[in-house]
Amino acid sequence: MRLLHHFPLLSHLFLLVSILAACLAQDAMLLLLLAGGFGAASWLVTEGPRGAFLTRRWSLILSAAVAIWAGVLIAGDLDNPVVGLTQFAIWIAVIKLYEKRSLEIEAERLIMAVLLMVLASMDAFDLLFGVLLAVWMVIGIVVILLFQLHYGVELGESQHGYGLDGGGEDPTIGTRVRVHMRRVLVFVLVAIGLGSSVLFVAFPRGLTEELSVAASARLAMLGGGQDSDITLVSGTRIVESVGVVGEVIVTDEREGDHGPLKRLYLRTGTASMYLGAGRWTPQLYGQARTESVGSTWKKIEYGEGTPGWMMRIELNEPLEYLPIPAGTVAVRSSIPLWLKVFPEREVIEIGRMDVGVVYVRSTGVVLATSAVATTTGVVSVAANEVAQRVLQDRGISVTEPRDEAARSQWRSRVSNALLAYLQSSRFTYTLDLSRIGRGAEVRYMDPIERFLLAEPQGHCEYFAAAFVSMAQSLGLDARIVMGFMCQPESADGLHFVIQDRDAHAWAEVRVHEDRWTQFDPTVIRRVDRASSDTGLLATLQGWYQHAEAWWRLNVLGFDAHIQSELAADTLPGPAWFFEQSRQWVMSRARQVNLAFGIGRGGTIYIVSAAVLILATVLLLVRGYRTRRRFRIEIGLRPGRPSRELGQCIAVYRELLVILKRAGFEKPPHVSPLAWCGRMSQSNPDAAELADRVVHAFYAVRYGGEHIDEGGRRQTSEWLSQLRTILEVSA
Fold first, then answer.
1. Nearest to 282 by CA among 471, 482, 458
2. 383: CB partners within 8 A, 6+ apart
3. How far is C-alpha 71 from the geometric centre of its chain's CA atoms?
4. Who has greater pLDDT, 85 or 542?
5. Would you call 429 helix, strand, or coil by DSSP?
6. Closest Cα partner for 456 from 478, 479, 424?
7. ∠ CA(89), CA(92), CA(98), 5° rounding?
8. Are 479 and 373 in contact (CB under 8 A)?
9. 163 forms bridges with which residues in the sheet?
10. What is the pLDDT of residue 93?
11. pLDDT tens digit sequence for 38-87
């Protein structure tokens, strides 16, 4: 079989893919260049008539050095030993690639490839790793199937002096064998794919902290990711999905000629209390007001003065909070709608309803309706130290003036200084948080302190949280604002489409006592979406980002909650049927337990007994079919043979089994006596005994003779002698 000639290359590639996946899981580019380079070069060094190999002595020395290095890594980070174990496995795999190829080394390479992929699966969250895993699985199945044939060829070469190309009879040649190999490969791939998919859907796992961060959020399933709380360490509303949340058309009701809007900020919530560990929550100001809205304008008492903007907001999916501009003063809806109004936070809750079209009038000014200062919660010492250093570098006093006019000016200068610091080149915007907080020195740091001091990268929630934390540490009233930041879809700057990826977080500071001032500290490039999303490279990058967002959302983020929502949305009928069936089975199980008095575990025993009975029945059916097929092969008519003939057939079958185990399997197209003649060339004693058994079988099968008890003992003795000669156990 030609595929067997490529076994060494496929085995080498199988291990290289494992090394690549392990390096990718650790995000270690230097390790990838070194280990991957050495691994790829091993094929050029070890292959060919002048191939060079590592001696056993040098292999042990290098393995010991790698073990010491891995021990140092593990001792330095006992809470996360996977890093050290993975690097140890990578370098051991590279060493194995330079050893002389043998059956033992090939088996060790296969084991190292599986070990590397298992260790990598503990760390990897990227879509690229998922692709590598699929490729690795396909190559691995081919390699493992071919390893059996490779072992047979190597065994034949060692025993008979010829290999795959060295003459002799090749047991792997033939159309039938190739077709069988392909069928087995397809069957295994389909079985693994279907089985793993069923297990994945049927048994969703709970999200760990790292997996929750990698999953990024369930924005598309939560209708824009509406949430009044922010948790930096276990997910985010910020993703790259282009799903459409709604559409906004703005009408400028101000007098005079005005330029188009460059950005539209729509708020859905605020958070001002820091609870520590990256958690922010809204401040409780008391009871909210409930409003009934219909086709007539309803005053909301937001903003001040005359409204300057009227917006038509049409939602494509139900949201928990209505995305509104700053300074909303009046609302009306195309259908009757109940609103829950939070005046102090300027947020309107709509309870995840399909609201149709809502019209909003606003002033663009956020009033400070409460004279009470916001509650800061936990104050970060590190944030205060960084904020003081920023003010000192810019010559700004850290003490708030007493004069009201000077105080407003000081707040403005402080806010702009913090804004400039976070928008400097020191900080990087990214949505990939899978690598953040994984080092031993930063793992237990507060997320905001880690962002400011150790790992200055994150999405807009990190920027807004750091800005508000620093501002509050200096005594300013500040809060995080969640919502959407949209860019115009038309040249007039009055038509906006709200997409999932427009979800955003910014900050507000009470610079003046009577109103809040907006600050957006995020270093963000995606805000220029209309001008930047052009070109083939940007298009391909966008496709990959969308695919990875789908991967993290639907694969990494798949848990029991999403499973129940998916079943309720897509399979309401079957979901109800399966739930009723499950309850019926559980009820019957409880009745069985009570009836037999065997406790809660009685069902397990009953099911186990049923499985054993079923397995026994299947084995009996299989044995019957095997015997029936054998009788047909030897030309016996259908029906139950006589006892004597059945015993004779059993003796003949036992003869074939002994010959097969000894390596003398009879081909179907060769008669028994002819095969005994061929055997006499290599093992005449065994051939003579086999010939006697065959003649005894022929005498009963075709000659109609009867064998007495002595004849049966004689054939049994011949079979026993044949086992001894061929060294085959009973």
1. 482
2. 448, 449, 452, 466, 469, 470, 473
3. 29
4. 85
5. strand
6. 424
7. 145
8. no
9. none
10. 92
11. 999 988 888 877 788 888 889 899 999 999 998 988 887 777 788 889 89
Instruction: Please determine, for residue 278, whether its predicted confidence score (pLDDT) is greater than 70.
Output: yes
Q: What is the pLDDT of residue 639?
A: 54
d(CA 361, CA 328): 6
Work out the pLDDT band at 237, boundaries 50, 70, 90.
Answer: low
Contact 466, 418 (CB under 8 A): no
Terminal CA-CA length for the chain: 34
Q: What single DSSP character describes residue 280?
A: E
> Angle of helix 29-46 relative to helix 7-26, nearest 10 degrees?
170
pLDDT class of 221 with cuts at 50, 70, 90? very low
Both tokens of 596, joined, read: 């037999």
Q: What b-and-e string marks burial along 170-208, b requiring 16 or more CB atoms within 10 Å of the CB?
A: bebeeeeeeeebeeebeebeeeeeeeeeeeeeeebeebe
DSSP β-bridge partners for residue 512? 515
Decide if 505 contacts 464 (C-beta within 8 A).
Answer: yes
Separation CA 57–CA 145 (nearest Å): 32
Q: Are 242 and 500 in contact (CB under 8 A)?
A: yes
- List the beta bridge partners of residue 515: 367, 512
How wide is the angle at C-alpha 621 spanned by C-alphas 618 and 626, nearest 5°? 125
| pLDDT, position 220 | 35
Q: For residue 133, how many other CB atoms are within 10 A of its CB?
A: 16
Q: Which residues contact 592 (CB under 8 A, 6 or more apart)?
A: 602, 603, 606
Give the least confident one: 187-196, 440-449, 561-570.
Answer: 561-570
Q: How many whole angstroms separate alpha carbon 479 and alpha carbon 105?
A: 62
Q: Cβ neighbours of residue 285 under 8 Å, at least 6 residues apart?
A: 342, 343, 344, 345, 370, 372
State how far the Cα of 717 lies from the Cα of 223, in Å rounded to an integer: 80
Helix, strand, coil fractions of the chain, as percent rounded to 5: 55, 15, 35
| Segment holding 89, helix H or strand E | helix 82-98
For the four alpha carbons of 263, 527, 316 and 463, in that order, the dihedral sign comes to negative
Q: What is the pLDDT of residue 668?
A: 75
Q: How many CA atoms lie within 13 A of 78 on its CB side?
A: 1
C-alpha 7/C-alpha 556 separation (Å) is 34
Cβ atoms of 322 and 348 within 8 Å: the answer is: yes
Range from 284-298, 541-555, 646-660 carrying the lowest mean pLDDT: 541-555
Phi, psi of 579 (to 5 degrees): -65, -40
The SS3 call for residue 90 is helix
Question: Quick one: pLDDT at residue 617?
Answer: 92
The phi and psi torsions of 315 (rounded to 5 degrees) equal: -95, 135
Pairing outcome for strands 357-362 and 309-315: antiparallel
Kindly state the tokens that stand for 315: 């939602």
Distances (CA, A) of 400 to 338, 391, 476, 521: 43, 12, 9, 22
User: Residue with structure tokens 């520590």?
Assistant: 276
The first and second tokens of residue 489, run together, are 């879809």
Strand partners, 505: 482
Strand stretches in 216-277, DSSP E: 230-231, 244-252, 264-271, 273-276
Tokens of 106: 């090939």
Least confident of 35-49, 328-342, 362-376, 680-694: 362-376
* Residue 447, H or E segment: helix 447-449
Spatial distance between the Cα atoms of 700 and 234, rounded to a whole number of angstroms = 78
Q: What is the pLDDT of residues 588-603, one digit of tens each?
A: 777 777 666 666 556 6
H-only helix segments in 536-642: 536-551, 560-570, 572-596, 602-633
Answer whether residue 343 shows pLDDT above 70.
yes
Query: Cα separation of 467 and 422, whole Å?
Result: 8
Copy the structure tokens of residue 397.
Answer: 């006093």
Q: Residue 559 has which token pair?
A: 């848990």
pLDDT for 715 beyond 60: yes
